[in-house]
Structure formats: structure tokens, C-alpha cells
Design a protein that fits this description.
The longest helix has 19 residues. This protein is an alpha/beta fold. It has one domain: Maf protein (Alpha-Beta Complex). Helix 1 links the parallel strand 1 and strand 2. The protein has 7 helices and 7 strands, in the order E-H-E-H-H-E-E-H-E-E-H-E-H-H. Strands 1, 2, 3, 4, 5, 6 and 7 form a 7-stranded mixed β-sheet that branches.
Length: about 200
């Protein structure tokens, strides 16, 4: 069996892999995501192409260091009314993002690109539509106090796997895509190629 590398430091993605019983190593690709995202946005790429390119950049970089391994690069972006959101850098930014998203429907795009022998061999983009509740300012403030700084690692400023679920009225799509990894599709592909047992 080939070594599997997850080119991500996301604790959630690592937890999903561990819970699925996969043997893997997590390695940070160390790319400047903000700069790359700005560059891709300036080139007027679609949100789907941007998230795909971000995931591929991570997989490609790690694959060059470990050409004999199967490397998975992942990324996720949030799109609302044509604007892309990132992980909040501070409490004020988290508040502003959630106020902007409140009462609306936004999309999460979760991409994974798999490299083997320094070449891309598979890619997938999962899309989820999230309907956010019209929560009160008082609830928002209490939510931020209770959940900061944990939500700093979540694009949009919420974590569906914890109290962030209370911010929503409906979700159309895969729960795993919300968490940032199209896990079922990934497992099916790895199994099909013989990289994992099934």
C-alpha cells in the first residue's frame, strides 16, 4: 500500500480520516493561501476554479517532496452574493461576516485534488447551500463569546459540528462537504484505485 498524505493541518479533516480508520500522515503544504486566493480572484476565475486551484496547489507542493505517496490537497471557500469569505482573523471580523450572512443563503465549496507520482489523478468539488437563520444580535454576541477562538479556524465563522448548527434553518448537501472534505467520494476513489482496503 502506498503512503497516504493529507496536505492539510485542519484538525477536522484529520479527525475525519482517523475516524474512517485510515492510516495517513498530515503535512502542512505551507502555501500563502490569501495571496494565491487574491491572485486567482484578480484573474476573474469562478469560485469553483479558485477552490480547485487552491486544493491543487497544496497537493502539488507536498507531492514534489513525497513523489511516492498519494497526496490529498483540500480547500474550502464560502461564496455569498459573488463575494468570497475566508476564516475570520479576529472577533470583529467573525461578527461582521455572520451579520452579513444572516438571513441569507450562501454556498460552501469543498475541493479535493489527489496527486500520485507528482501528477494530478483525481479531483472533486462538493457544493453545499446553507440557509442561515435571522438570529438576534443578542444571540450572536453570546454565541461569539462562547465559541471564540474555536470558530477562527472555520470559514465564515461557524462550526456546524458544534453550536454553529443553531445558526441555520436548512442545509442542502453533504455534511462532510460542510466540514471541508468530500469524504465519501474520497474513500470511494481511494478504494477503487486500491490505495485503501475495502
Amino acid at each position: 500500500m502506498k503512503k497516504i498524505i493529507l496536505a492539510s493541518q485542519s484538525q477536522v479533516r484529520q479527525s475525519l480520516f482517523r475516524n474512517a480508520g485510515l492510516s495517513f500522515e498530515a503535512i502542512n503544504a505551507r502555501i500563502d493561501e490569501d495571496m494565491l486566493k487574491q491572485s486567482l480572484g484578480a484573474a476573474e476565475l469562478s469560485p469553483r476554479n479558485i477552490v480547485d486551484q487552491l486544493a491543487e496547489a497544496k497537493a502539488a507542493k507536498v507531492s514534489r517532496k513525497f513523489p511516492d505517496a498519494v497526496v490529498l490537497g483540500c480547500d474550502q471557500i464560502l461564496e455569498f452574493k459573488g463575494k468570497l469569505f475566508s476564516k475570520p482573523h479576529n472577533l470583529e471580523q467573525a461578527r461582521d461576516q455572520l451579520i452579513c450572512l444572516r438571513g441569507g443563503v450562501h454556498k460552501l465549496l469543498s475541493a479535493v485534488v489527489i496527486y500520485d507520482e507528482c501528477e494530478p489523478i483525481w479531483r472533486h468539488i462538493g457544493e453545499v447551500r446553507l440557509h442561515m437563520a435571522s438570529f438576534s444580535d443578542a444571540f450572536l454576541e453570546a454565541y461569539l463569546v462562547r465559541n471564540w477562538p474555536a470558530i477562527q479556524s472555520s470559514v465564515g465563522g461557524y462550526m456546524l459540528e458544534s453550536e454553529g448548527i443553531r445558526l441555520f434553518t436548512r442545509i442542502d448537501g453533504s455534511y462532510f462537504d460542510v466540514l471541508g472534505l468530500p469524504l465519501i467520494e474520497v474513500l470511494n476513489y481511494l478504494s477503487l484505485r486500491g490505495f485503501i482496503e475495502r
